[in-house]
Design goal:
The model has no long low-confidence stretch (mean pLDDT 96). Helices cover 41% and strands 20% of the residues. The protein has one domain: Rossmann fold, CATH 3.40.50.300. The strands form two sheets. It has a five-stranded parallel beta sheet, covered by helices on one side. Bound molecules: adenosine-5'-diphosphate and ligand L45E5XJ5. The site of the ligand Nc1ccn([C@@H]2O[C@H](COP(=O)(O)O)[C@@H](O)[C@H]2O)c(=O)n1 has 11 residues, from loops. One of its GO terms (cellular component) is cytoplasm. InterPro entries: P-loop_NTPase (IPR027417), PRK/URK (IPR006083), Uridine_kinase (IPR026008), Uridine_kinase-like (IPR000764). This is Uridine kinase. GO terms for molecular function: ATP binding; cytidine kinase activity; uridine kinase activity.
């Protein structure tokens, strides 16, 4: 029997991925669940000045160090701890420090582009897509990025029009077809979150019975 299961939660920026992830995490015993954000695996850009880092297209698959993400997911599956990078949205770069992540039975991986890459998809036991209309997503993103990511209204709008929206249409939206479960409006869809949790609890019970 597997050491762990990995649940992938994809969806556009502002769709409610982190909210779904937190709601699901709260239903699982604390010592059995860990969260991996694809955002933590943005490529290291220390060699570039801030003025260049601001201009990076953070919604294109090239922006992510998926090689490291895949390596870490495989290590966790193998019961090995990892040093997860920590991302700084204000500086547009990885921090120098990392966070020790101990392998747990349930791993929740969340991020905009986790379903676009076949090698990541193949590591996922449950694939979820949080499906929220673009007008709702941009409003949520404006509020969040100004409050939590040190952005101005103008910068959020410019970034949305130049890179976020085109990459969403090119990469994120088409990846919905790979999902096992599509959650409309994300966030607080209790029925959908309970259904995923039922599958998680069945796995944990089976694992306990096998020990
Ligand atoms: N169902 C919802 N109703 C209202 N606000 C929500 C809902 N889901 C998420 N939010 C808010 O929208 C913002 C973006 O949600 P978040 O879960 O961080 O999205 P994502 O991780 O997909 O970018 C957050 O400030 C969050 O509190
Ligand atoms: N330096 C960065 C890195 C990423 N972004 C944006 O974050 C979005 C993904 O995070 P969500 O929590 O919204 O899913 C993505 O759309 C990037 O545009 C950024 O603005 N700056």
């Amino acid at each position: 029997m597997k050491n762990s299961i990995i649940i992938g939660i994809a969806g556009g920026s502002g769709s409610g991925k982190s909210t779904v992830t937190d709601e699901l995490k709260n239903l699982i015993e604390e010592d059995k669940v860990t969260i991996i954000e694809q955002d933590s695996y943005y490529k290291d850009q220390s060699s570039l000045p801030y003025e260049q880092r601001v201009k990076t297209n953070y919604d294109h698959p090239f922006a992510f160090d998926n090689e490291l993400l895949i390596k870490h997911l495989k290590m966790l599956k193998n019961n090995e701890p990892i040093e997860k990078p920590i991302y700084d949205f204000e500086k547009h770069n990885r921090k120098e420090e990392t966070k020790l992540i101990i392998p747990k039975e349930v791993i929740i991986l969340e991020g905009i582009l986790i379903l676009t890459e076949e090698e990541i998809r193949n590591l996922l036991d449950i694939k979820v897509f949080v499906d929220t209309d673009s007008d709702v997503r941009i409003i949520r993103r404006i509020l969040r990025d100004i409050k939590e990511r040190g952005r101005s209204l103008e910068s959020v709008i410019l970034q949305y029009m130049s890179t976020v929206r085109p990459a969403h249409l090119q990469f994120v939206e088409p990846s919905k077809k790979y999902a096992d479960v599509i959650i409309p409006e994300g966030g607080y869809n209790k029925v959908a979150i309970d259904l995923i949790n039922t599958k998680v609890q069945a796995f944990l019970k089976e694992k306990e019975n096998n020990n």
